[in-house]
Amino acid sequence: MIHGYEFTDKLSNNMSEVKTFEETSVLRDYSVLSRKDFEISLSCYRRLPENALTERINRLRIEKNAVILAHNYQELKVQNIADYIGDSLGLSIEATETDASIVVFCGVDFMAESAKILNPDKRVIIPDNRADCPMARMISAEGLRKMKQLYPEAVVVTYVNSTAEVKAESDICCTSANAVEVVKSLGNKKIIFTPDKNLALYVEKMTGADIIPWEGFCYVHNSFTSMDVNVALEEYPGALFIAHPEAPMDVLDRADLITSTSGMIKWVDRNLDLVAERGVIIGTEIGLVNQILAKHPEARIYPLFDRAICRTQKMIDLPKICWALENEQFEIEIVEETRLRAYNSLKRMIDIVP
Ligand code: 13P
Ligand code: SF4
Question: What is the DSSP letter of 137?
C-alpha cells in the first residue's frame, strides 16, 4: 500500500491556479492529496530547466542522505541520475547495503515494496504512486488463498512482480534470474506458480516440475510473437536473439538465450566480439535496449519491437524525482504482519539463490 493522494480523474486544466514555486511545490499534508494537487505541485518542477532540476536533486540527495535507485527499464535521463541501476531484486538488495536513510525507488511499486520489505528501517519512496505493474495486479491475496485450498499439498512460488500481500501468502519468491534454480531446490513437490503464466511454463519446461500456473502475464512481453522474431531476423540475418522469460513459449523457443534484464546486460558486456560479428536482437522492454546502446553506441543491438514500452515504468521522470525528494513522498508503508510474512518468502529465495 502506498500512502499519498487519492486518485481522481478530475485533473486540473486550469494551471492559472499555480502560484509561486515555494507556495505550491511543497505540500506537506498527503493524507488526501488529489491527483490535481499533485499535478499543480509538480508543475513548478516541470518548469525548471533540466540543469536546475539536476542541481536541485543533487543538493537534496546529499542534504537528506538519500540514495536513488533506478530499474533497467527507466528512461535514460532517470538512469543517468541514479546512484544504482539494476533489476528488481538487485536494487532491493542494494537498498539493504546502503547507509542512506531515504531510498528513492525509480521503478514500479512492487519493486519499491520489495525494498521496504527487506529494509523496514529505511524510508522508501516512489516518485509516482500510480506507477504499478499490471501483472502484479492480476492476482490478489484472496485469489491465491482460494487456489491454495484447491491444492493444499502444493508449494507456492511467487515471482517478485507481485504485491506484498501476495508474497505474504506465498512460500517462496523468485525472480526471472533465479526462477529455475528456486523451483529445482524444491524437489518433486507440486507447485502453484504465480502470477506469470509465461515464466511458469518456461520454468516447467526447464525443470520438468509439476506446475499449476496462475494465468497472469506482462502485457509488454506477452505481446511478442514469433512473427516479430521472423521480421527481425529478416532485417538482421544471422543475428542472435535474446529473450526475457516473460515472453510466450513460441517466442522463447526461438531464443538463443533466455535471461533476466541484468542477465542480458551482463551477457552483452561479456560478448562484445560476438555482438559485433552477429548482431543481437533483444526481446524485452525498450529501456533496457537503450541502456545497452548508451553504453555501447556502436554495438549491433536491435530491439525485437521498438514500441515495447512499459507505460508505468515511464511515469517516473526528473521533475517527479525532485518533487519526491523535496516532499519525501510517496512513502511505501506495509502492515508489519504482512511485511514479515512477505519477508520470509523473499528471504527463503535469497538464502537459496543469493
Ligand atoms: P527484472 O527482475 O529482470 O528486472 O524484470 C522485472 C520486470 O518487470 C520484467 O518485466
Ligand atoms: Fe510489469 Fe511488464 Fe512493466 Fe515489467 S514490463 S513492470 S512485468 S508490466
Answer: G
Which among 290, 272, 294 has a CA at the least distance from the CA of 282?
290
Span 283-309, mean pLDDT?
96
Radius of gyration of the chain (CA): 21
Atom of ligand 2 nearest to the CA of 107: 6
Residues 30, 130: Cα–Cα separation, whole Å: 15
pLDDT tens by residue, 48-66: 999 999 999 999 999 999 9
Pocket test residue of 73, 89, 108, 316 for ligand 2, highest count of atoms within 8 A of CB: 108
Strand, coil or helix: 281: strand
Q: How far is the CA of 251 from the centre of ligand 2 (A)?
A: 17
Distance CA 223, CA 228 (A): 10
* Strand ranges, E, within 172-322: 172-174, 191-194, 211-213, 240-243, 257-258, 280-283, 301-303
pLDDT in tens, 231-244: 999 999 999 999 99
How many Cβ atoms sit within 10 Å of the Cβ of residue 32?
10
Return d(Cα 180, Cα 206) in angstroms, integer: 7
CB 248 within 8 A of CB 215: no
For 58, the grid coordinates are 543533487
DSSP 3-state of 240: strand
Ligand 2 close to Cβ of residue 325 (< 6 A):
no
The model's pTM is 0.90
